[in-house]
């Protein structure tokens, strides 16, 4: 099986590196391209067997599974250029949320799917969000699911929760990274701890928290109950969080959805 990657930016690069590290594919199975050739050729330095081609058309011609790792507004012209080569035995996979399965199916004759990865997939962990086109067979779904299992836990989602699921699984690492950094910065401002010391302690804390949840030793609520004893220091800290967090996350989801709907309108005009 040949895997095509069109676009070797942030997420395209993560898929390439994660697939190889996880032994999901061999470098020789990958066919990649990028509008800036230098970015694609970079992978040849570490993985000489990767096939780097000049055009997206060449990727589509040679690959069985074709990941489109480009910006939403680049999809329509790209798919128009490729559709003559996209025979019904191929599967085009979008990694972006504003492009619906229905829109993909409206313009190409091949099978389509959507796989929204997360930066956590680079560590061969976290989830990937998967949706399938109506013409995908059970075998097609198994093929995609088995590929993504090497680097993530694939979760099949309905179209109506695409944005919020992506906010949690894909954007979430950046959101919580920001909160942890703010936590570290405040510790440095308010006490004599150094930034390096606070960063090390906070990083190890996040890793340990993840392992507790992974091993199902605690749930999020039971972990809070165990650490926050009545009259203790943790309880005082939780009290501040309850008072200050307020509707912050409600506003976050409102803002991400507003941008999502704005992108949907721009994409819709292209496809219409």
From TrEMBL:
NCBIfam families noted in UniProt: PRK07680.1
Family: Belongs to the pyrroline-5-carboxylate reductase family.
Residues that hold NADP(+) according to the record: 6-11
Stored PANTHER family: COME OPERON PROTEIN 4, PYRROLINE-5-CARBOXYLATE REDUCTASE
Annotated Pyrroline-5-carboxylate reductase dimerisation domain residues: 160-259
Enzyme Commission code(s) on record: 1.5.1.2
Domain Pyrroline-5-carboxylate reductase catalytic N-terminal: from-to ranges: 2-97
Reaction equations catalysed: L-proline + NAD(+) = (S)-1-pyrroline-5-carboxylate + NADH + 2 H(+); L-proline + NADP(+) = (S)-1-pyrroline-5-carboxylate + NADPH + 2 H(+)
Xref: Gene3D superfamilies: NAD(P)-binding Rossmann-like Domain, ProC C-terminal domain-like
Chain's role: Catalyzes the reduction of 1-pyrroline-5-carboxylate (PCA) to L-proline.
Organism of derivation: Anaerobacillus alkalidiazotrophicus
Pathway connected to this protein: Amino-acid biosynthesis; L-proline biosynthesis; L-proline from L-glutamate 5-semialdehyde: step 1/1
GO cellular component terms, semicolon-separated: cytoplasm
Protein name from the UniProt record: Pyrroline-5-carboxylate reductase
Pfam families: F420_oxidored, P5CR_dimer
Keyword Membrane belongs to the record: no
Intracellular or extracellular location(s): Cytoplasm
Domain of life: Bacteria
Biological process annotations from GO: L-proline biosynthetic process
């Amino acid at each position: 099986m040949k895997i095509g990657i069109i676009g070797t930016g942030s997420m395209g690069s993560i898929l390439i590196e994660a697939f190889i590290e996880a032994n999901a594919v061999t470098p020789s199975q990958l066919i990649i391209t990028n509008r800036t050739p230098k970015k694609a050729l970079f992978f040849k330095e570490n993985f000489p067997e990767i096939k780097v081609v000049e055009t997206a058309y060449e990727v589509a011609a040679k690959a069985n599974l074709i990941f489109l790792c480009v910006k939403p507004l680049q999809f329509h012209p790209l798919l128009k250029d490729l559709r003559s080569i996209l025979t019904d035995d191929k599967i085009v996979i979008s990694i972006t949320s504003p492009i619906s399965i229905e829109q993909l199916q409206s313009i190409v004759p091949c099978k389509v799917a959507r796989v929204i990865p997360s930066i956590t997939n680079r560590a061969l962990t976290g989830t990937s969000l998967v949706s399938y086109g109506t013409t995908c067979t059970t075998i097609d779904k198994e093929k995609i699911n088995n590929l993504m299992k090497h680097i993530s836990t694939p979760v099949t989602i309905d179209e109506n929760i695409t944005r919020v699921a992506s906010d949690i699984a894909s954007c979430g690492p950046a959101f919580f990274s920001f909160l942890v950094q703010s936590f570290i910065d405040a510790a440095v401002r308010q006490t004599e701890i150094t930034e390096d010391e606070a960063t090390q302690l906070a990083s190890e804390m996040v890793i340990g928290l993840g392992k507790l949840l992974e091993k199902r030793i605690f749930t999020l609520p039971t972990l809070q109950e165990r650490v926050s004893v009545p009259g203790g220091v943790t309880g005082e800290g939780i009290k501040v969080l309850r008072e200050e967090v307020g509707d912050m996350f409600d506003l976050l989801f409102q803002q991400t959805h507003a941008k999502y709907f704005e992108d949907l309108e721009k994409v819709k005009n292209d496809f219409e």
